[in-house]
Design goal:
The chain has 241 residues and is of the alpha/beta class. The protein has helices at residues 29-39, 52-55, 76-91, 109-118, 178-186, 191-196, 201-205, 225-230; strands spanning 3-9, 23-24, 27-28, 45-49, 64-68, 96-100, 128-134, 147-150, 156-160, 168-176, 211-214, 236-237. The radius of gyration is 17 Å and the shape is globular.
Amino acid sequence: MRTLVIVPARLKSTRLPNKPLLKIEGVSMIRRTLERVLASGVSPVVLAGDDPRILAEAEGLKGVFPVMTGQHHSCGTERVLEAYQIMQKELGPFDVILNVQGDEPFMDPGMVGDLVRELPHRLKLAQFWTTVTPIKDAEQDDINVAKVVLDRSQNALIFTRRRIDEAYKHTSIYAYTPDFLKTFCNLPPSQLEVSYRLEQMRALDHGFKVNCIPLPYDAVSINDEGDLKKAGVTQFEIFEG
């Protein structure tokens, strides 16, 4: 199974200014995320950014292809599709595309590798997959933590940012077949996607399955300064450029 990892990043963030370039102990968030992905051993890796300063953060990282994408995308998945269409001309077709979001500087590299090893067993269940893990009690009321309730086939019933019974924590790695990636991006944003600020709701709202893969990895996605504190970060610098 030929797999491509794409890390989408946009400069403008509503909750944390210039988030990809925020420095954590002297190293940018996006570079830390790329280093985690590279440590998984899954390759090739594409950095899909909308600003040359983001792409510059991949300098010296062997195996990372920086790709400039537009500023018009409504979600990271749309940016992933543009990057895939650009890179396909150079690298050829792939069976599965992984979307590792650019605000995962503390992600365990093992999660990427385990996901890739599990996917061949789930190809008949869906064309869109994502990772989940048991949720901690302390995160039940954290709106920065997306929650998901699963059916018996481990397909998502609902994603939400609010407390909900029998939920898992969504750990923010997506995987798609190329065909589904194109289908998803041709769908209009749904009402719940916009209301919940959760792009995966677009798939559910249009009747598509999202198969969830429980893995024993947790991490703090960085959405605001509160998440930095939750991750134990004591030294950070917001990029003001």
